[in-house]
């Protein structure tokens, strides 16, 4: 994977010093108000030369307790589709753990637009 993709995956898993980052409670109050029970971060990267996509997700409670995490790699998939698969997997696991209100954080605008129904994934447009 290239440096940008590696950095995204590392950002998901590396702990950050609390002095450098505001608390998760403060971020939720300032940015996204809501009764969230779980915050799920999803990151993906693509190695075009090897035609592989890697993705990772982690889920933390509002108190900052790590509840689940996952990482996978696949061939020949677009990043937006791979991110959606990770989001579905994380949502199914969260529902099975009894969480009903969770917030997804993702760095891909394309995946967010596909998830919100504003556009279709590239390669799926012929099904309109």
Core attributes:
single chain, 128 residues, Nucleotidyltransferase, domain 5, 34% helix, RNase H type-1 domain-containing protein
Helix content: 25-40%
Low-confidence stretches: none
Q: What structural class should be given to the helix and strand makeup? A: alpha+beta
What assembly state would you assign to the polypeptide chains in this entry?
Answer: single chain
Report the CATH architecture.
Answer: 2-Layer Sandwich
Major sheet strand order: 3-2-1-4
E-strand count: 4
Instruction: Give the distance, in angstroms, between the N- and C-terminal Cα atoms.
Output: 33 Å
The major pleated sheet works out as: 4 strands, mixed
Task: Provide the succession of SSEs.
Answer: HHEEEHEH
Specify Rg, calculated over alpha carbons: 15 Å
Coarse shape: elongated
Bin the strand percentage. 25-35%
CATH topology: Nucleotidyltransferase, domain 5
Relevant CATH superfamily: Ribonuclease H-like superfamily/Ribonuclease H
CATH class: Alpha Beta
Walk me through this protein's architecture:
- The chain has 128 residues and is α+β, with helices and mostly antiparallel strands.
- The protein has a single domain, classed as Ribonuclease H-like superfamily/Ribonuclease H (Nucleotidyltransferase, domain 5).
- The chain has helices spanning 3-13, 24-30, 79-96, 109-116, and strands at 38-47, 52-61, 66-75, 102-106.
- A 4-stranded mixed β-sheet has the order 3-2-1-4, with helices on both faces.
- Helix 3 crosses helix 4.
- The longest helix is centred in the C-terminal third of the chain and has 18 residues, at 79-96.
- The protein is elongated, with a radius of gyration of 15 Å.
- The model has no long low-confidence stretch (mean pLDDT 70).
- It comes from Quercus lobata.
- This is RNase H type-1 domain-containing protein.
